[in-house]
Design goal:
The complex is a heterodimer. By secondary structure, chain A is of the alpha/beta class. Helix content of chain A is 50%, strand content 11%. In chain A, strand 2, helix 7 and strand 3 form a beta-alpha-beta unit. Chain B is of the alpha/beta class. Chain B is 51% helix and 11% strand. In chain B, strand 6 and strand 7 form a beta hairpin. The chains are: A alpha/beta, B alpha/beta. The interface between A and B is medium-sized, with 31 and 31 residues.
């Protein structure tokens, strides 16, 4: 049962008003249709950034001008973050190849995995040029959409996680802003000092993930949705060899993950962002592709979303980030000058933050992977370079308003506003502070 | 021609003059110089550049820059002196001056909390300045759609140095295209630590020579008596020979922090040292860097060859950029331990000086000139239609001369310079092969 169905309804409604092209597609396409039409979405967090083409924005209420922008931005497209993501499937297939246990399809897959592994040599987890371009695009649109903020003396304060891919994401956004707005005063840093909000999990909230109910839900979905036997039969020519030498579930997951990562490599891409020569999606059936997408989506939800299994605590793991956003906004709004605060970090922070902030339908609940994916889709929340932007608007002698965008798409908040998606900041602030107090009093 | 000759003479004269200034005098003019590789980048002032030969215009720049000013890169630089003084304080063995010093170090350590090795804003500004002068001094390069290709080691202070230089370039010339990366993939030439040559300084005669020189230059008795109220406590609980250089290193770091002038004055630790102590401690520190990275008979005059891979990358990348026919800038960001050997390897100025006399080293080879924070080597290429390309080498934005014939020095024909580098690389191959086959 969807507790937040009203908000979802409002979101869908507002999206369909604000962005007819995409919203129509979103409202009508089932997740299965969306994923089979574009398998690059199936893995969730490896999805490339969905450029906001065709998105239109609601005009702010009369007389209001943007004065401050605050953002949390995930790094852009990268190589697989884990060296085992390449090396383990490579070793499995190499051993089978040497033992002459691969089918022609298995040989073909081995060739692709070998190519990807070589491409990633000494580049594990590194930002690719595709990722760099995503950030340049985000920065360009920031400057273009909010010219009132990016004027002569705007101060841009950028902070990054200490992961180099995040620092390079920051660099690409910052030099783009500097080129478009040469008089901006930009200061950036990537320091352990700022990790307490850029990438910090509240341990007391994190502990709720270990509840048996959470583990049970995970196990049930895993065993029901992962069916690796057919694929193993297609890749290997000897079932006894597979039984003795291949961790079939693991290999299934590794190949699924690699299939999803190809879109982030700087290699030739076709119009759909896929390199036909390196495409691993055809080795999966439609059902396999969709079932495992449902599992990953559900897993992300159990880890980061509002779910009964963790007693609705999971999003509060990132309370320190929301607190930083609020307190920094207090300072910047009080300063009386134009400011921009950029934070660069990770998907595992962005997703719980989107849920915690109750953006659109991110705070939805669901009882099963099937029910969840009808409305709550990980690829809409934390693709590569996924980002949450809070844009503050000011009018003389009127309350400051805030608009929140997820991946540059306007979001509704669970508050009444005659001017949605523009909300009075003091109300939003009070709402979020109330949520944070829950975490404090826990 | 006469004019160039005159300029060359004048500039040689300047170099000679600066080389002739005794080290002690130069250091007393600015005690911050005793910081050796912690010396904050000296913004070039009053430098006049030799005009290129008639008709030549700059069209390509290739550079290697060290990260800018940072916090100390290892926590023990703070914790060692802090613990030594805190222990003595708990035992009631500090003088009022000792307690003041403890307070200062405690403050500096708190500033560095979770910022060990981070670039400071002072460092960020150094790189913005370097970029600004690059654009100002070579406007012919930064025209139209010049392409800038930047690479950094994956160490964050280097990445942030690259960020600041690139942002400043983009600000000044928005039309340029820019691509940057910080990858382990480029580590082979940006910061190769694998060389067996990197460890020669810690062996045999070199290690012995440094130990001897340390004994001659570290005289902690006066300072210890000023900080501690109990000589017996000092002799039983304090490693004076270690503590004194640690305190000196704390004094050195202050110039790199983001402090107001009042704060910088308050935290100035040079005041606890006498001028003689400062000079002696600098000589020791300078000698250590010299043995680690320069041509010394005690390390068989071989250490600088460890930067052969970087020199090779500079040459091969230049080959590509010169052949491309378009304007390019290649920026590399790394570490002092790469710039030092490379400056020596190229025999820039007097930096190939080789001697086993540490005092003579101090007069010829001064680390604060070679590797201050943000130290950088720039190779600026000049072209004239129908004439051979030329190159000029700058260390910290000062023109450098090399033992290479040129009627236009500091401008050298690229083909001559390339051959000069090839010869160095052949020699490097021999040296490295010798160690690898052992």
């Amino acid at each position: 049962m969807m507790r937040t169905s009203l908000y979802i309804f409002i979101t869908v409604l507002s999206l369909s008003l604000a962005a007819p092209t995409r919203a129509t597609a979103q409202a009508t396409a089932t997740a299965r249709q969306e994923i089979l039409a574009n398998p690059n979405l199936s893995g969730g967090n490896p999805a490339v950034y969905p450029e906001p083409t065709g998105v239109t924005y609601t005009r702010p209420p009369r007389g209001y001008k943007p004065c401050y922008l605050s953002a949390y931005i995930r790094h852009g497209s990268r190589f697989h973050w884990d060296t085992h993501g390449y090396s383990r499937p490579h070793q499995t297939l190499q051993k089978a190849h040497d033992a002459d246990k691969l089918t022609p399809l298995g040989q073909h897959v081995y060739g692709i995995v070998d190519s990807l592994t070589r491409a990633a040599d000494r580049r594990i987890g590194e930002l690719t040029q595709i990722g760099a371009r995503q950030h340049r695009g985000i920065a360009q649109r920031m400057v273009r959409n909010f010219p009132e903020i990016f004027r002569a003396d705007v101060r841009v304060s950028a902070r990054s996680s200490t992961a180099v891919r995040c620092a390079l994401s920051m660099l690409n956004e910052c030099w783009t802003i500097e080129g478009l707005c040469p008089k901006a005063v930009i200061r950036c840093n990537a320091s352990e000092h700022d990790m307490s909000y850029i990438n910090y999990e509240e341990p007391r909230m994190k502990a709720y993930r270990k509840r048996p109910e959470s583990r049970q839900a995970f196990d049930d979905a895993y065993h029901r949705l992962l069916q690796a036997d057919r694929l193993m039969g297609a890749l290997f020519n000897d079932t006894a060899y597979v039984a003795h030498h291949v961790k079939k579930d693991q290999l299934f997951m590794e190949l699924y993950s690699l299939a999803n990562h190809v879109q982030n490599h700087d290699v030739y891409h076709d119009a759909r962002g896929r390199n036909p020569q390196l495409d691993l999606f055809p080795i999966f059936t439609d059902d396999e592709l969709y079932d495992w997408a449902k599992f990953i989506n559900y897993y992300n939800y159990l880890t980061h979303g509002y779910n009964t299994q963790t007693l609705d605590k999971a999003p509060l793991t990132r309370a320190s980030l929301l607190r930083n956003i609020i307190l920094t906004a207090d300072t910047c709004l009080a300063s009386g000058r134009r400011n921009v605060t950029l934070r660069f970090g990770h998907d595992m922070v962005l997703m719980p933050l989107a849920c915690l902030m109750h953006l659109g339908n991110c705070a939805a609940h669901a009882d099963s992977p099937e029910e969840l994916i009808t409305e709550w889709r990980n690829y809409n929340i934390f693709p590569m370079a996924g980002n949450i932007q809070l844009v503050f608007y000011r009018k003389k002698n009127a309350p400051t308003l805030v608009k929140v965008m997820l991946n540059e798409r306007e979001q509704t908040l669970p508050l009444h506003s005659d001017t949605a998606p523009y909300y009075p900041w003091h109300e939003v602030r009070a709402y979020y502070m109330g949520l944070l107090e829950q975490a404090d009093t826990e | 021609m006469n004019r160039i000759l005159l300029l060359a003479l004048l500039s040689t004269g300047c170099l000679a003059a600066s080389a002739q200034k005794p080290a002690r005098q130069e250091i007393m003019e600015d005690l911050n110089r005793t910081a050796t590789n912690l010396y904050a980048y000296p913004t070039p002032q009053g430098i006049t550049y030799t005009k290129p030969p008639r008709g030549y215009k700059p069209f390509h720049i290739s550079a290697y820059a060290r990260h800018g000013s940072r916090f100390h890169a290892s926590a023990d630089k703070y914790t060692y002196p802090l613990d030594a003084l805190a222990r003595a304080d708990s035992a009631g063995r500090l003088t009022p001056l000792g307690r003041e010093v403890l307070l200062t170090i405690d403050t500096l350590y708190r500033m560095a909390h979770k910022r060990i090795g981070d670039l400071t804003q002072v460092g960020a500004d150094q790189h913005r300045g370097i970029a600004r002068r690059m654009v100002r001094n070579y406007p012919e390069v930064f025209r139209g759609t010049v392409h800038v290709e930047a690479r950094s080691t994956p160490i964050l202070r280097c990445v942030m140095s690259m960020a600041n230089e690139c942002m400043e370039l983009k600000r000044l010339h928005p039309d340029m295209t820019l691509q940057c990366n910080a990858s382990h993939h480029d580590y082979d030439y940006l910061n190769n630590h694998d060389s067996c040559l990197a460890h020669l300084y810690a062996q045999g005669q070199a290690a012995h020579s440094f130990r001897e020189y340390s004994r001659r230059t570290v005289h902690p008795d006066r300072l210890m008596a000023a900080l501690f109220n109990d000589p017996q406590y000092v002799s039983e609980h304090v490693n004076q020979q270690e503590l004194m250089p640690y305190l000196f290193s704390m004094a050195a770091i202050v110039q790199n922090l983001d402090l107001t002038p009042q704060e910088a004055d308050r935290y100035n630790l040079y005041r606890i040292f006498t001028p003689d102590e400062c000079f002696d401690l600098w000589k020791r520190w300078n000698y250590r860097w010299y043995l680690r990275h320069a041509f010394s008979p005690l390390t068989h005059n071989e250490v600088p060859y460890m930067e052969a891979h970087l020199l090779r990358n500079i040459i091969l990348t230049a080959d590509t950029c010169l052949a491309s026919g378009r304007r390019n800038v290649t920026l590399r960001f790394g570490h002092d331990i790469n710039v030092m050997p490379l400056a020596c390897l190229l025999h820039l100025d007097d930096y190939a000086f080789s001697s086993d006399d540490p005092d003579a080293v101090a007069e010829h080879w001064r680390s604060y000139k070679i590797t201050p924070k943000a130290t950088n080597l720039q190779f600026v290429f000049y072209r004239r239609k129908g004439a051979p390309d030329m190159v000029k080498v700058l260390l910290n934005e000062e023109e450098m001369r090399m033992p290479l014939d040129s009627p236009h020095a500091p401008y050298y024909y690229w083909s001559d310079f390339r051959k000069y580098c090839e010869d160095i690389l052949h020699k490097a191959d021999e040296v490295l092969h010798k160690y690898q086959s052992r």
